[in-house]
């Protein structure tokens, strides 16, 4: 009978150790889980996109792409897709916007569905887009090739707003899509 009591005591003692260890780990996980969301807030904005635009056949049109109320920044890099009907308008190039005038020259790559645009800042941290900022990030230079009355969507997708060092997280923003109309 004494042997059974010793075994029960040892089993009980081991169970208490595991219980204390388990509760400690659970408490640590709860604390980390509570603090983590504030530390990992991704860059975002209220909106990202364009207003409706228009232009005449055989002309060039500059359409600003705007970001509104940047949050969880600063933002040193932006990449996005713009989908449009390339039988109505065709992207000829991209220029710096008001919020990116100190950045490197934007790059674009045309595809059958539209274009992918990327813009990166220079190595000076103060030139990144700061929290609360609103303005144009790029100007899209379109040639108008459609006929009078033709329309094209200007839809944004895969909007990526990069966070600065040390985390380099990628956030996004709701798209503000527009329509382009060829004037008569």
Span between termini: 103 Å
Q: Kindly provide the name of the CATH class of the largest domain.
A: Mainly Beta
> What is the CATH topology of the largest domain?
Immunoglobulin-like
Radius of gyration: 27 Å
Q: Uncertain runs with pLDDT below 50, 5 residues or more?
A: none
Strand content: 35-45%
Principal-axis shape: elongated
Instruction: Estimate nothing, just give the exact number of structural domains.
Output: 2
Helix content: 10-25%
Total strands: the figure is 12
Number of helices: 1
Classification by helices and strands: alpha+beta
CATH architectural group of the largest domain: Sandwich
Topology as a string of helices (H) and strands (E): HEEEEEEEEEEEE
Mean pLDDT: 86
Largest sheet report:
7 strands, mixed
Key traits:
184 residues; alpha+beta; Immunoglobulin-like; 2 domains; 7-stranded mixed beta sheet; 5-stranded mixed beta sheet; 12 strands
Overview of this protein structure:
- The structure is a single chain.
- By secondary structure, the chain is an alpha+beta fold.
- It folds into 2 domains: 1-39; 47-182, Sandwich (Immunoglobulin-like).
- The chain contains 1 helix and 12 strands; from the N terminus they run αββββββββββββ.
- The chain has one helix spanning 2-39; strands spanning 47-49, 53-55, 60-68, 77-83, 89-96, 107-110, 114-120, 135-144, 151-162, 170-171, 175-176, 178-182.
- The strands form 2 sheets. Strands 2, 4, 6, 7, 9, 10 and 12 form a 7-stranded mixed beta sheet that branches.
- A hairpin with a 3-residue loop joins strand 6 (107-110) and strand 7.
- The longest helix has 38 residues, at 2-39.
